[in-house]
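ENTRY TYPE: paired fold submission
RECORD: A
CONTENT: sequence, then structure tokens
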Amino acid sequence: MLIGIAGMVGSGKSTLTRALATRFGLQLALESVDDENPWLEKFYGGGVDEMRAHALHLQLHFLATRFESMRRMRGAGGSWVLDRTWYEDAEIFARGHFEEGLMSALEWELYRRLYVELLHSPAARPPRLLVYLHAPLDTIVSRIRRRGRPMERETPDVYWAALHARYERWIAGFRACPVLSLDVRDYDLVGDPTAIEPIAARVRARVEPALPQTDLFPANLAALTG
């Protein structure tokens, strides 16, 4: 069983992923570390010409890494919670590079063909539930300015506005699996880890009886608050 967590940078995906993993005793799958991607520095290290030269390589690396991780998770079995989905890699970020002119039409078509073929693989079975984190743009940008990585804090607002719009368009048409939408203004897991309880109740209602039978809460509350 797989629960996917989706949402913009700054929406708190990793925090919620860890909290749900602890709450339900799920295995945890976080995004790969930036240092493991040799194309990031090439893509961000120069101007627009460098971005155009490496956009396809960057997104293919993300795609390959994502499906490798999914294959290993499916092979290991059990129940998982996933920080960011393969749908976002393609439909938000790779498509965004194409729309911004950083990928040519031929490059986008090549990427899209590979992505569509990978969707037919056993590793890409849809999650049992997609938890979508959302908020108005100003809330997301404020969070990024406070908590984001240095590169994120320095990114112009126009980039976040375009990303926010793509996320809203994407989720409006998403039909691969059931979606639970959470407004991130309604809770604060950083300030109050026990706020996971009403979220956990909503998740449980959507995925029973697929959750593990052993409910670890409140024994693991210390792991959230410590």
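RECORD: B
CONTENT: sequence, then structure tokens
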Amino acid sequence: MEVIIKEDYEEISRLAAGIIAGMVRRSPRAVLGLATGGTPVGCYRELVRMHREEDLDFSQIVTFNLDEYVGLPEDHEQSYHRFMWDNLFSHINVAAANVHIPDGNAGDLHEACNDYEMELDEHGGVDIQLLGIGSNGHLAFNEPGSSLGSRTRIKTLTERTRQDNSRFFSTLDEVPKYCVTMGVGTIMESGKLLLLANGGNKAEAIAAAVEGPITASVPASAIQFHPDVTVIMDRAAASKLTREYHSQPHFLEGDKE
């Protein structure tokens, strides 16, 4: 696991976007696993800039998102479909047919989850998975207690997660209680994991995920099992780490080959 501590959110976002861009340039047909929430917005903004100013080409890229709320229409301002199109897809040349986001309005949610897993398999799995981390250590919407071998499924959101996400809604009552999420086991099959964290409210979760025991009580701790993980955070998110880490990657993503 490579742990990189940057000074601020903008540095986190630029480095993360550079890593993803390196994958896209090396593998124009790569499968990108994408995340929502406040943390990846800066990364997406930088990818859009690179597309516009540096001709970063997404025309053959395939994307799979981690999760979606159950019951929100796709055009709802807080749906993750809407989030992805507003923050990334509408501003790059990705093909709509290559975009995959869990269906939180399917008539048969269990079948839709199984279909999502099958689609992932048909595309050979995710090459690089962008991740955030919840203040309670959740990964995607895999709440504490989730099986570390879990697959895409319906989950009940904890009150802490709903309260954390209530800042995006008018009231807590508007926050959905259920979601569809990739499982921890699904995420762990990605070729590379790229986890971002910023702010002191993520410090305990980051310390538990990076340095704590591997436990279902902190689903993000499963990343310790993965052979290729980069965690990028600011100093506030790193404030409860006890080991020594560095502020620059060991190598640029394009230097691997």
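NOTES ON RECORD B: The mean pLDDT is 94. Helices lie at 9-26, 41-54, 80-87, 109-122, 159-165, 184-188, 203-211.
STATUS: closed
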